[in-house]
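Why should sequence recovery work at all? Because a backbone constrains its sequence more than one might expect. Tight turns favour small or flexible residues, buried strands favour hydrophobic ones, and helices have their own preferences. The token representation captures these environments compactly. In the example below, the structure is given first.
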């Protein structure tokens, strides 16, 4: 699962949703490749409820036309929700919106995949062979 690339995103944001009952909210949207027009069929969609509280992610897969749906217990939205899209060969993306936009479908555009290169060194400056580096936190300048 590629969720390991983005696990521990500690931002808590309420995202787009449309209410279908008093108990359940369905988060809907479309995910596209970086050109913004080609549907990203098969992209993995993750709805993450407040990771700091240890809540497990919700998961879906984008259909051939790029659409997705996630059902969420509406009573848990106060904890926060972030929707992340990820697909092999692309960088992941997420989108945060405020409460007044909860009933609008999301549009997510995957980023071109980027690499980070470098060398991991021990405290004495010696290279560490076969070191693995993991992304633990990812925040933007505005905290979303």
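From this structural description, the recovered sequence reads:
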């Amino acid at each position: 699962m590629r969720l390991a690339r983005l696990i521990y995103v500690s931002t808590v944001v309420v995202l787009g949703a449309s209410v279908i009952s008093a108990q359940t909210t369905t988060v809907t949207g479309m995910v596209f490749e970086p050109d913004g027009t080609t549907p990203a069929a098969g992209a993995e969609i993750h709805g993450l409820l407040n990771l700091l509280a240890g809540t497990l992610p919700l998961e879906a897969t984008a259909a051939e036309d790029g659409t997705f749906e996630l059902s969420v217990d509406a009573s848990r939205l106060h904890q926060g929700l972030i929707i992340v899209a990820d697909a092999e060969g692309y960088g992941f993306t997420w989108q945060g919106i405020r409460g007044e936009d909860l009933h609008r479908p999301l549009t997510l555009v995957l980023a071109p995949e980027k690499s980070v290169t470098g060398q991991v060194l021990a405290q004495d400056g010696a290279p560490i062979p076969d070191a693995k580096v993991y992304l633990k936190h990812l925040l933007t300048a505005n905290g979303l």
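A few observations help interpret the result. The longest strand covers residues 24-32.
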